[in-house]
Specification:
6 helices, six-stranded antiparallel beta barrel, 355 residues
């Protein structure tokens, strides 16, 4: 075959290749700009498109009485974000998004309807709340739940929410740090928080923080800012405690967690340890021999035992006790170092369910 024929054959094959490619693409019309985007841009777009239908707007309605005619009517107390948890219509959001509300309205992407929802359960110490739709739309898109145990600082993070009521806004950044301790709305520090520089603003609360595979790794909760706007320091509740708490709220309406069966002050002023104010008569602490405040036989007030450590970890506050016990399971045995009648003792206590 001549060189000319060889060239003609190559041109023909190349032309057929182009034609076949164009013909294939014509079956899947895409925005022509997409082909020129970077891999990172394409990934962000793909994650957003995969997850956006799972993200909802949450409106908190509070009932108030008119000062003129004493009629009761609803006013909007605030707005936030949430995400669809399952096909049954459960919506997960922050506790502070729904706090103080009497009713709640949920809106979805490209749906002009608003759907009423009611509270199923709350866990203020983790800033988690679960709502359930009274009436569901025709189709629900539950979020894809991931894990937060093995997250790495520096990996990509994508937030979707409703900042300043601009619905279904996507922002992108990285995980800036892990295991932050941030004071929550209940006054108890939330341990293990994810820090991200993905832009988070008022209205983002309760929205999902996603990884590059579009899986839920956290729930956007708060920002550190002097101006009230995003300063690149946002925090999300990690998904692992969410995955543990939400099913309990759905099933029981509350969180069942291990406890000692004691009452201790929220704000201890003691230099060392924390005093036991009272013990449940049939609770694990009482059964182990720990005692709260009481009256002696002479009618004098006697201080309760002073707890110094739990499993070797020094405690100074209610916050310390809560976060240590929160890592345990019902039935675990912990060792309490306490001062009882002026003597330091080590007392083993088997944790039981506290409702």
């Amino acid at each position: 075959m001549s060189k000319v024929n060889n060239f003609a054959l190559i041109v023909m094959v190349f032309s057929l290749g182009i034609f076949s490619t164009l013909a294939f693409k014509s079956k899947e019309p895409l925005n022509e700009e997409y082909d020129y985007l970077t891999a990172n841009e394409k990934n962000t777009i793909d994650v957003f498109q995969k997850s956006v239908n799972s993200v909802v707007n949450v409106t908190n309605i509070k009932m108030v009485r008119s000062g003129w005619d004493y009629d009761i009517y609803g006013v909007r107390a605030g707005v936030g974000t949430g995400f669809v948890w399952d096909d049954l219509g459960h919506i997960v959001t922050n506790f502070h998004v729904v706090a103080g509300g009497d009713s709640f309205l949920i809106s979805f992407l490209k749906d002009k309807n608003q759907y009423q929802a009611k509270i199923v359960g709350i866990q203020p110490h983790k800033d988690i709340a679960v709502l359930k739709l009274v009436k569901k739309p025709k189709k629900l898109y539950p979020i894809t739940v991931g894990k937060s145990k093995n997250l790495l600082a520096g990996q990509k993070a994508i937030a979707i929410g409703n900042p300043f009521e601009m619905e279904h806004t996507v922002t992108q950044g990285i995980i800036s740090a892990l295991d932050r301790k941030i004071e929550g709305v209940s006054g108890i520090k939330i341990h293990g928080m994810i820090q991200t520089d993905a832009s988070i603003n008022p209205g983002n609360s309760g929205g999902p923080l996603l990884n590059s595979r579009g899986k839920l790794i956290g729930m956007n909760t708060q920002i550190l800012s002097r101006s009230g706007g995003s300063s690149g320091v946002g925090f999300a509740v990690p998904v692992d405690p969410i995955s543990r708490i939400v099913p309990q709220l759905i099933k029981h309406g509350k969180v069942i967690q291990p406890g000692l069966g004691i009452s201790i002050p929220r704000n201890s002023r003691m230099e060392e340890g924390i005093e036991i104010l009272a013990v449940a008569s049939d609770g694990p602490a009482a059964l182990a021999g720990l005692r709260g405040r009481r009256w002696d036989r002479h009618g004098r007030r006697v201080a309760g035992d002073i707890m110094l450590e739990i499993n070797g970890t020094t405690i100074h506050s209610y916050d310390d006790v809560y976060n240590i016990l929160e890592r345990h399971q019902i039935g675990d045995v912990v060792e309490i170092t306490a001062i009882q009648d002026g003597v330091k003792k080590k007392i083993k206590v088997k944790l039981s369910a506290i409702f």
